[in-house]
Design goal:
The chain is an alpha+beta fold and 533 residues long. The protein contains eight helices and 32 strands.
C-alpha cells in the first residue's frame, strides 16, 4: 500500500513539472513575439520617419545595421528614406565622421547615419528644438543700423597756455627807479604800470629833436623827421615819442605797462637795478585760457580729432564746468602707461583754473558714420576672432565670424559679417558655440577660398591600397620633370572613387601638389586594360 502511494505521488510531481515547462515555453514564445513586433515597429518607424534627424539612437543603429546588410555607404541613396547618406558618426563623439557603416571605435554601439536634407545634416548650423530653446532661455535681438555717439574720458593737469605768454625786456641802457609789481604771481590788469625806468641815452636824442623843432625855414621838416627816426632807433616807443613832441619837454623817464591782463610769472629785476639793452625784466602770463593735458589710451586716441568739444570739471572748482576743445594730440606715447597726451584749450574767464589742478575731461568723439549695430552680449570674443550666433528658420543657429568695432553703451559696431534684419543670440550662445565647436563648424567659419592649385594628369597603375592612400606607378610627367616611378597619392573621398578598386587596376588620374604632404588626387577613373593583358 505504501509503495502504491509513492508511485502515485511521483506521477503527480512529474505532471506538475511537465505543466510548468509547457507554461515557460509558451511564455518565451509570446515574449519573443512581442520583441519581434517591437523591433519590426521600430524598423517601420525608422523607415517611415520624415526626418532621420529626429530618430532615436536605437533607430539610427538599426539603420546602420541595415546599411551593412544592403552594402550601403556614404554617397549612396538609402532606399528606405530616399535620402543620400552623407556620413556616419558616433552621437557621443560628434566631431568624428566615417564613410562606411560600422561599429563605433569609441563606444560599445553602432555608428548612426547622417543624411542630406535633414536638419541635423546641415554642416554649417546647429539645430535646437523649441523646447530646449525655452529651457535654455534663448533670447535673440535684431541687427540694426545706426551710429554710436561716444565720448572719451581722461584725467589731466592744468598748465599755462604758453601762447599767451609775454616777455618784457629793456630797449636801452637804463636804471629801474620804481617797481609797481613787487613779487612774482601778482595779478595785473591790461595797461597797468609795472615799472619806471630812467634812460640817459634818450636825453640827447630828445634834446636834438626839440632843438630842430624850434627852428623854422626850408629843410627843417626833413631834419625833424631824421631826429624822430633817431629817437626810435634809441628804443623809444611811438607813444613816448609823441609825448616828447606834444609837451616840448625832455622825457628821460619811461613807464613800463602791461600789454595783457594776467599774472607776473617771473620778476627778474628790483628797484635800483641797471637794465642793459635786451635784458629781460619780467614775464607776464595771460589767464584768459589755460591748457589741460589729459592722458588718453592710445587705443582711443584715434577716435579724437583736433577741434573736438571738451567738458571739464575739477575738484578745485566744484559745481563749475569749463568748456573747450582739443587743440592737438601731442606726437609722443608714454612707454609705461601707453597713453597719448591730448592738449585741450579751456576757457578760464574767472581765473579759477591754475597750473597743477587735477581735472576730469570728457572729450566728444566726432559723429561716426552709420553702420550695423548688435548688442555687445551677442559677440563672443575668442581671442583670434569675434563670433556671433545667427538665428535662422527652423530652430537653426549658425556661427558667423564678424569684424567688431567700437563698443559704447552696450552696443557694438559690426563692419563685416552680418546684414541688417538678421537676428543674433543674446543668451545661451556659449552653449550653442560649444556644440558648434564639437561639430567642427568653427573650423569652417568664413573660410577664404584657397588659390587654385595647378593640376596634372597622368596614367597610373595601382600597386597597393592602404586606407585613404594609394601607391601608384606612373610614367614620366614632363610638367614636373618627374621620371617614371612608384609613389603614394592621397585618394579623393569615397563617394568620388570607382567601386572595388584593387591592385593592378589601370587609372587615369588628375592630381595637385600639397605642401608638406603627398599629392592629392582630385579625380580618377578606370581605364580599360590594354589588349592582350
Amino acid at each position: 500500500m505504501n509503495k502504491k502511494a509513492s508511485i502515485v505521488a511521483l506521477a503527480a510531481v512529474t505532471a506538475l513539472v511537465a505543466v510548468g515547462a509547457g507554461a515557460w515555453w509558451v511564455g518565451m514564445q509570446q515574449g519573443m513575439g512581442h520583441t519581434m513586433s517591437a523591433n519590426e515597429a521600430q524598423v517601420s518607424s525608422t523607415d517611415a520617419s520624415a526626418d532621420p534627424s529626429l530618430w532615436t539612437i536605437p533607430q539610427g543603429e538599426e539603420a546602420t545595421r541595415r546599411h551593412i546588410r544592403e552594402s550601403l555607404k556614404a554617397g549612396d541613396v538609402d532606399p528606405a528614406t530616399g535620402r543620400q547618406i552623407l556620413n556616419y558618426h558616433d552621437p557621443m563623439v560628434p566631431g568624428k565622421n566615417f564613410e562606411a557603416p560600422a561599429k563605433s571605435p569609441f563606444m560599445d554601439m553602432m555608428l548612426v547615419p547622417r543624411y542630406a536634407g535633414s536638419d541635423a545634416a546641415d554642416a554649417s548650423s546647429v539645430t535646437v528644438s523649441p523646447r530646449i530653446q525655452q529651457n535654455l532661455g534663448l533670447r535673440t535681438a535684431p541687427v540694426i543700423e545706426g551710429s554710436l555717439v561716444s565720448e572719451v574720458t581722461a584725467v589731466g593737469n592744468v598748465a599755462w597756455n604758453e601762447r599767451e605768454r609775454v616777455e618784457l625786456s629793456s630797449r636801452a641802457m637804463g636804471y629801474v627807479e620804481k617797481l609797481h609789481v613787487k613779487a612774482a604771481l601778482d595779478r595785473v590788469a591790461a595797461g597797468a604800470a609795472l615799472a619806471e625806468l630812467y634812460v640817459p641815452d634818450w636825453v640827447a636824442a630828445q634834446e636834438e629833436y626839440l632843438a630842430l623843432a624850434r627852428l623854422s625855414g626850408e629843410g627843417t621838416d626833413a631834419l625833424q623827421d631824421a631826429a624822430r627816426q633817431r629817437m626810435r632807433q634809441a628804443g623809444m616807443s611811438p607813444a613816448h615819442i609823441q609825448r616828447v613832441v606834444s609837451s616840448g619837454v625832455v622825457q628821460p623817464r619811461f613807464t613800463l605797462t602791461a600789454p595783457i591782463a594776467g599774472i607776473v610769472s617771473e620778476l627778474m629785476v628790483r628797484e635800483g637795478a641797471t637794465a642793459m639793452p635786451g635784458m629781460a625784466l619780467m614775464r607776464l602770463q595771460g589767464t584768459r585760457t589755460v591748457w589741460a593735458e589729459g592722458a588718453v589710451p592710445e587705443s582711443q586716441a584715434a577716435l579724437l580729432q583736433p577741434g573736438a568739444r571738451v567738458r571739464t570739471t575739477s575738484p578745485g572748482a566744484p559745481g563749475q564746468t569749463f568748456e573747450g576743445q582739443v587743440q592737438t594730440l601731442l606726437p609722443e606715447v608714454d612707454a609705461v602707461t601707453r597713453t597719448i597726451r591730448a592738449r585741450v584749450e579751456l576757457a578760464n574767464p574767472q581765473g579759477r583754473l591754475v597750473p597743477g589742478m587735477l581735472v576730469s575731461m570728457r572729450l566728444d568723439r566726432p559723429q561716426a558714420a552709420t553702420t550695423l549695430l548688435v548688442p555687445s552680449d551677442a559677440v563672443i570674443h575668442t581671442g583670434r576672432r569675434s563670433v556671433v550666433m545667427v538665428a535662422e528658420d527652423g530652430g537653426r543657429f549658425r556661427p558667423v565670424e564678424v569684424t567688431a568695432g567700437l563698443e559704447v553703451g552696450g552696443q557694438t559696431e559690426i563692419s563685416a559679417g552680418l546684414q541688417m534684419g538678421q537676428r543674433v543670440v543674446l543668451s545661451g550662445q556659449f552653449l550653442i558655440d560649444s556644440e558648434a565647436s564639437l561639430r567642427g563648424l568653427e573650423a569652417r567659419l568664413n573660410q577664404e577660398p584657397s588659390p587654385t592649385a595647378q593640376r596634372y594628369t597622368t596614367d597610373a597603375v595601382i600597386d597597393a591600397l592602404s586606407g585613404d592612400t594609394v601607391t601608384l606607378t606612373h610614367p614620366p610627367i614632363p610638367a614636373l620633370k618627374w621620371p617614371q616611378m612608384q609613389m603614394d597619392f592621397k585618394l579623393p573621398p569615397r563617394a568620388q572613387q570607382p567601386r572595388d578598386l584593387e591592385a593592378g587596376d589601370r587609372l587615369q588620374i588628375e592630381f595637385e601638389m600639397q605642401e608638406g604632404e603627398v599629392p592629392r588626387i582630385t579625380s580618377l577613373q578606370r581605364v580599360a586594360p590594354e589588349p592582350g593583358k
